[in-house]
Each structure stands twice: as structure tokens, then as C-alpha cells.
Amino acid sequence: MRLCSNQQRTLSLLKSNMQLVINPDHTKKQGIYAVSARAKRSDIPLAARMVAYCDQSEEEWAAKYDIKAWAMAQAQLCESTRPLRIFVVHPSLLEGNPKNAKFPARAIFNPVILEAEKELITYKNVRKTVTNAKTGRREIHDRVPERCASPNIFEPEEGCMSFTHRKPKKVQRVFRMTVRYWYPRRILGFWVLWRVTEQIEGLKSQIFQHEIQHMEGENIFHAK
Length: 224
Hints:
Blueprint: H1 8-15, H2 44-65, E1 71-73, E2 86-89, E3 107-115, E4 119-131, E5 138-151, E6 153-154, E7 157-158, E8 169-170, E9 173-174, E10 176-187, E11 190-201, H3 202-215
Antiparallel strand pairs: 1-2, 2-3, 3-10, 4-5, 6-9, 7-8, 10-11
Helix pairs in contact: 1-2
């Protein structure tokens, strides 16, 4: 999602009332410790402000914390008891870098994990020698489907912008999964939320899981 104007004054206005909450108090059910509510089309301007705030703060965060914010949930930018299910991504992720983690827009609304199995099941055709029950002879069957299971779990190191004082932590993530989400799209002059259902993997899957944790009142350092 792109802002309509590149003027510094407009960006400053859009950035207003945003603040990255560092080291939030887990005893208070607000921000990343509150369960986020479903976002609506009327919340698209809020997503634009989030994008502006993150873009303007990138250099400051890099200098202060030596960390890059690949994504940021709305719950991390407020101390509300009812944050919204929106996260924004770094602009480089719109180009599919790194590791082909391509997003259709800067803002993602209401992400839901539909399927996240711990094993990947595939079938391949193999040649097998079997005994014919009638003739007793051994025969070669060229196309016998064989079920193959492989792990769908990986353990990347993750940091979190809400805990800049803490070192990255190894976490268990599902590598490939199916998600549903919405993103702002302009059609015939009107902004709408466009629904997407897709299979994702790698870094993109990791980002979805990290941000959804924030929306559920959890994070990599504090789980329910």
C-alpha cells in the first residue's frame, strides 16, 4: 500500500499518535498482551499511518537497537486493550526478498492460519516387485503410490521489536502452511479489503506466525 503524497508534512501527520511500546508490562492485558479484534475496511487509514510510522522510524530503530523490523503488528504500537488484527511489512518484502517472501501489500488484515501440519505428506510412484496371488509369479508393478512423510518444522532464531533488550531466540515454526488474509486494494477509485487464501512457506510463514502470536496476546518470550 502506498501513501497518496510523499510530502514530509503529510507523512508526519500520518505518523502522529504512533509509538513503539518497548518491554510492555505482561501483567496488563493491553497491547501485545491483549487479544486483537478484527479489523475493518474503515481501518485502512490506520494501516497507512502504521506504514508511515515504521518507514520514518527505520533508521532510528537500526541505530538504537541494531535490528531490522521485517513486520510490525498494530498491537506493538499501542497500549490499547483492544488492538486490531493488522500487521505491516518492510517494503523489501513486496519484491519477494529475501527468500521469496513476497507480500501483495504493505498491510495485512485479519490473518488466519487454515492448515499447519507438523509433517508434509507426499506420494510418489515407485517400482515394486510383487507376487501374483493366482500364478505365484513375481511381477514388477511400475506405478505403486508410496506415502512419504517429512518434517514440516524448522527452528529459526527470532528477535522482537517489543523486546529490543533481549537476544534473538530459537523458536519452533511450521515451514509450509495455508493462510487466509485480506489486504487493502484500490478498485474503481475505492479502497476495499481483498481476500487471499494461499500456501506460504519459509520466511513468509515465519512472519505470519510471529505476528499472529502478538494478535493472540502471546509472543516468543511469553506464552499463555
